[in-house]
Amino acid sequence: MKKLIAFIITAAMLFALASCTKPADEKVTVNSDGEYTVGICQLVEHPALDAATKGFVDTLKAEYGDKVTIIENNAQNDTTVCSTIISNLVNKKVDLIMANATPALQAAVGGTRKIPILGTSITEYGVALGIKNFSGTVGKNISGTADLAPLDQQAKMVKDLFPEAKTVALLYCSAEANSKYQVKVIKDELVKLGIKKSDIKEYPFSDSNDVASVAAAAAKCDVIYAPTDNTVANCAGAINGAIGSTPLIAGESGICSGCGVATLSIDYYDLGVATGKMAIKILNGEMSVTDMPIEYATEFTKMYNPVKCAQLGIDTAALEAAGYVAIDMGDEK
Asked: Which residues of the chain form CATH 3.40.50.2300?
């Protein structure tokens, strides 16, 4: 009898635990009344992410006009704020979430398994979401667009523009998984191009508080490479002041405009447009987010920073002859 009672109690406890556990997958639902509310969580303000958000918003507004309400939020580079933003959007029962940058995507994935999520400005989804042997489709309620430019070509840019360089510094934020991924690939590509592994030195910083001191240390090398990295982008001004006359090759145009000499970059506005078109397919019921593969940029542009090149005495005519175009520096002199 005691064994029977113990068995019944154990079974009841297991049933109660199963009842309280959130199911692994929930049905992804989309509003179908023709009017939509879309929430945006952008990690931080900087030119690349701003452009992606603008392209996304412009595309939805062009399609739906006043029938779409867009709630824009910026986390000011605070991952905790990203989670708060996502919780608020889930509570508002938005029809779709656009997560701009990896920490925003991670917060969204942790916040809902029911609302469709589209990431943008994500370098590598397998790395961002911890998916081994990533096939190109996340599944569940997640898809989006990637901003990864060809890293082998960026490595070649370092070698082509500064052939006399003996040492290369890799400057990045150690808190960003996608930055670690890019640095690993770039290092391998530089070795293939003939640079000794011992002459490629990593200079990781943990956050914005130590970026200037780490950048100053990196400037002791002949040339610096900085990958597509949100903290680098947000601190480009501080980096520019710290590296002095040491040239920097950047992973994207926003970083390049702040502290770099040249880059091979995508157009982030176009990336936002592509993400917006994916959102329209989801909202119109033309395609399920579950079946959507990640979309990658197909066009890349060699760009140079005319202000930085002038400061360092780099021949911009030669750059243009090699296919580079000048970054629009706005009010920069």
From this structure: 36-147+268-296, 151-265+300-326
